[in-house]
């Protein structure tokens, strides 16, 4: 009969790491789109300005062509090439990382089944380290998830505001008055815009916005409440804590096992003491 090699713990660890990698790649791809296409939108001119410029320019198109000046939307073509190249680099990096992870995992499996008979005790400090790192990375993933969830709610509200005022309003491209909906607004900063500077990284990873709404703030709070409730529930289900004096089935089994071990140890000590006393009485004259 074939040996069952499926492990639920390994499955969930692999699922979590895969989800983490997918989130990071998605954030990087979104950041590239925002940086490249955002610059293109910021530098584009309105149709009215283009028509006025064409009327005011006395040089004909033929003379422009003969003089060597390019005519046509060359900038969007360059932007598209740059965007495609950066996305390929991100995907290539993710693929290389996957291959490295598979190689390291295969090496661990090979060592474990061939040479490692007592690696746990010999490398206990390393595992105590691979656990602290796990806790830190789990917290980071939760922070990224909170930012993405809050950012998604903010994006829905921003889209509704753009539908009302129209995307051609000039003020909506800045950070001052007119660039955000005052209805339901919690706070707004005229600086630290996620569309410029290093704030793009905070926006892509942690969901930073310089304009907070009731929806984005409440979604952030409710996200953490859901995380806390989930963690407390799993801790209760595993029997590591009690809720309002109630014990889970796993907790009861663990408590009964501990009590049984205590009783067994006590009985063993009593029997050992009796045997010692009988031996002493038998040997005494």
Provide the helix percentage: over 70%
* Shape, per Cα inertia axes: elongated
Q: Unreliable segments (pLDDT under 50, ≥5 consecutive)? A: 40-73
Extended strand count: 2
Question: What's the pLDDT, averaged over the residues?
Answer: 75
What do these coordinates show?
- With 285 residues, this protein is mainly alpha-helical.
- The protein is built from ten helices and two strands; from the N terminus they run H-H-H-H-H-H-H-E-H-E-H-H.
- It has helices spanning 8-43, 47-56, 61-66, 74-114, 119-122, 124-129, 130-165, 199-206, 214-237, 249-283, and strands at 185-188, 211-213.
- Strands 1-2 form a two-stranded antiparallel ribbon.
- The radius of gyration is 32 Å and the shape is elongated.
- 5% of the residues are buried.
How do the strands and helices of this protein lay out in sequence?
Elements: H1 8-43, H2 47-56, H3 61-66, H4 74-114, H5 119-122, H6 124-129, H7 130-165, E1 185-188, H8 199-206, E2 211-213, H9 214-237, H10 249-283
Antiparallel strand pairs: 1-2
């Amino acid at each position: 009969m074939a040996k069952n090699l499926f492990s639920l713990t390994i499955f969930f660890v692999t699922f979590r790491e895969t989800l983490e990698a997918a989130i990071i790649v998605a954030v990087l791809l979104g950041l590239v789109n925002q940086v490249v296409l955002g610059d293109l939108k910021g530098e584009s001119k309105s149709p009215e300005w283009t028509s006025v410029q064409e009327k005011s320019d006395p040089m004909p198109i033929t003379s422009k062509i003969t003089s060597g000046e390019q005519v046509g939307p060359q900038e969007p073509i360059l932007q598209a090439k740059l965007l495609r190249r950066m996305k390929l680099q991100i995907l290539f990096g993710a693929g290389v990382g996957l291959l490295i992870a598979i190689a390291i995992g295969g090496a661990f499996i090979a060592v474990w089944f061939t040479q490692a008979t007592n690696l746990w005790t010999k490398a206990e400090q390393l595992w105590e380290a691979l656990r602290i790192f796990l806790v830190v990375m789990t917290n980071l993933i939760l922070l990224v998830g909170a930012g993405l969830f809050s950012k998604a709610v903010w994006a829905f509200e921003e889209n509704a505001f753009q539908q009302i005022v129209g995307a051609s309003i000039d003020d909506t491209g800045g950070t001052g008055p007119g660039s955000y909906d005052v209805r339901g607004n919690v706070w707004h900063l005229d600086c630290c815009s996620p569309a410029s500077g290093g704030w793009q990284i905070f926006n892509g990873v942690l969901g930073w916005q310089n304009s907070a709404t009731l929806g984005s703030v409440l979604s952030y709070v409710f996200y953490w409440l859901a995380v806390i409730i989930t963690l407390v529930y799993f801790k209760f289900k595993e029997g590591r804590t009690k809720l309002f004096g109630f014990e889970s089935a796993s907790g009861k089994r663990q408590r009964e096992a501990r009590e049984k071990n205590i009783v067994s140890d006590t009985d063993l000590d009593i029997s050992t003491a009796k045997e010692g006393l009988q031996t002493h009485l038998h040997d005494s004259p």
